[in-house]
From TrEMBL:
<dbReference type="Pfam" id="PF11376">
    <property type="entry name" value="DUF3179"/>
</dbReference>
<protein>
    <recommendedName>
        <fullName>DUF3179 domain-containing protein</fullName>
    </recommendedName>
</protein>
<feature type="region of interest" description="Disordered">
    <location>
        <begin position="1"/>
        <end position="22"/>
    </location>
</feature>
<dbReference type="InterPro" id="IPR021516">
    <property type="entry name" value="DUF3179"/>
</dbReference>
Length: 372
């Protein structure tokens, strides 16, 4: 009796065609991670097509198709602000763009709820990123067209290939509701639905995903300290990954914290629709939104509190909003310095950011930082 041949299994040091296919020109001799950690999410490279020639429109034009609670990723410098609606990003996951004269990649992984913006310049080489079709720990694995290296979207770390071990520079961004973004920067440009692709923008291909208890295509057991798909404001200070659960933020609205030499303020506001709940984003439940800021301003250490559903600092009684702006009071018009952060699903933050740091610290319900 003949025996059916077994498909080759991935190994720690050698990729298999079952997972990677035949057409990669990647230098597979250079790797940081076990090849068995990769999962095939889409059989075709760029099966989820990145946007390489983004088109833009005004806020007035985008108001025709964006609702006040639509989630958007906001990227700014002193001269330019661009708004990237998640209803477009979730169908493309990567936009190769420019922030003024700076080449950037705007990325979003729906399975991890991770939106990250990177510089596309590495070692004097400008890269263009695509969607590899691979996942690692449920997170998007990007590839660059110049060397076909593979990159972890959550961290910007080169995993395999010429750039294995290289680190993309992250840029600050905010994940907030469309209405908040419009108030923050009313002259912003907005990524247009005129992408060159036919997609059901505004609809959600991951229906009820954030209502589940188990992440998709995650090969390891999630960290049990929180429900796997609870959202956290996640950030890195030094060699520590700090996570602030939305379940706590929704009650407190403001958290003042300090780690190493950084004084941290976490702001929370209700609203903003989930991108991965109902069949359409407009019908999805509200998740809330969280942002992270440095509390130092002009040599003054500010501390914040929530009063009457608004944020005030104790030092000047100025009123602030979720985007770190002083709206009223002696500091009106001032802007806090952002701390690079995201609104990650807990499982992804613990698995992907936690593995890159020495300490994973989860903000507890008793105002302490518990090491997990």
């Amino acid at each position: 009796m003949s025996t059916r041949p077994q498909a080759p299994q991935p190994t720690a040091h050698e990729p298999t065609t079952r997972t990677f296919g035949h057409d990669w020109q990647t230098d597979f001799s250079r790797q940081l991670v076990d090849y068995r950690e990769f999962t095939l999410g889409n059989p075709r490279r760029d099966g989820i097509p990145p946007i390489n020639q983004p088109q833009f429109e005004s806020i007035d034009q985008a108001n025709d198709w964006l609702s006040p609670d639509d989630p958007v990723l906001v990227v700014s410098n002193q001269q330019h602000t661009t708004i990237y609606p998640l209803q477009i990003l979730m169908w493309h996951e990567i936009v190769n763009d420019w922030l003024g004269e700076l080449p950037i990649a705007v990325t979003f992984c729906p399975l991890c709820n991770i939106g990250v913006v990177f510089e596309r310049q590495v070692a004097n080489q400008r890269l263009t990123f695509g969607v590899s079709g691979l996942l690692r720990k449920s997170d998007l694995v990007m590839w660059d067209r110049q060397t076909e290296s593979l990159w972890q979207q959550a961290t910007g770390l080169g995993l395999v290939g010429h750039f294995a071990g290289s680190q993309l520079q992250m840029l600050p961004s905010l994940l907030v509701a469309w209405q908040i973004a419009c108030e923050q920067a009313p002259t912003s440009r907005v990524l247009s639905r005129q992408t060159g692709f036919r997609r059901s923008y505004g609809q959600n291909p991951y229906i009820a995903y954030d209502q589940q208890t188990t992440p998709w295509l995650l090969q390891q057991r999630p960290n049990p300290q929180l429900p796997a798909l609870e959202r956290v404001v996640g950030l890195v200070i030094g060699n520590a990954a700090l996570a602030y659960p939305f379940s706590i933020l929704a009650r407190r609205l403001v958290i003042n914290d300090h780690y190493l030499d950084t004084s941290i303020a976490i702001f929370y506001q209700a609203g903003m629709a989930s991108a991965v709940d109902a069949a359409t984003i407009a019908q999805s439940h509200a998740t809330g939104m969280g942002t992270a800021w440095q509390r130092q301003l002009d040599g003054m250490l500010l501390s914040f509190e929530s009063r009457d559903h608004a944020i005030y600092d104790h030092q000047t009684n100025s009123r602030w909003d979720i985007s770190g702006r002083a709206l009223a009071g002696p500091l009106q018009g001032r802007q806090l310095t952002p701390i690079i952060h995201g609104n990650h699903f807990w499982f992804a933050f613990a698995a992907l950011i936690g593995e890159r740091t020495q300490t994973l610290r989860l903000y507890s319900d008793v105002d302490a930082m518990d090491t997990v």
